[in-house]
Amino acid sequence: MDRTDRKILAILAEDSRLTGEQLGDRIGLSPSAAHRRVKALEDSGAILGYRARLSKAARGNPSTVFVQVTLTDQRQATMLAFEEALARTPQIAEAYLMSGPSDYLVKVLVRDDDSYERIHREILSALPGVQRLVSQFTIRTLESGE
Question: How many CB atoms lie within 10 A of CB 52?
Fold first, then answer.
């Protein structure tokens, strides 16, 4: 990956809807050369995909809750079962394997028509291997990449 590729990635991170011509103009390449570069970045796995950023209202005005999850143990089978179950849970926006006192930090989106208590009781506490959940509710999002 060279300097031009890094410029392309930075520009596409800001606006992935640019045409090949617009991108080429911004980095000093022809549209076809810009397109070839983007295709190579996609093929290499540097660009994983494209998505629309939706407003909070379009997503059902969700509240964000961060949940620290401690598992019963850190065996590979326990962690894998937990991660696979998380991947099938639509309320989970993001999850991170962490260092420190908890094993995972999970970002939960709670829509207006749902309750966190139900999600906590019926979904999170029922995930395989869960020993402890510590929930923190956001008051306000300062900046969001969503």
Answer: 7
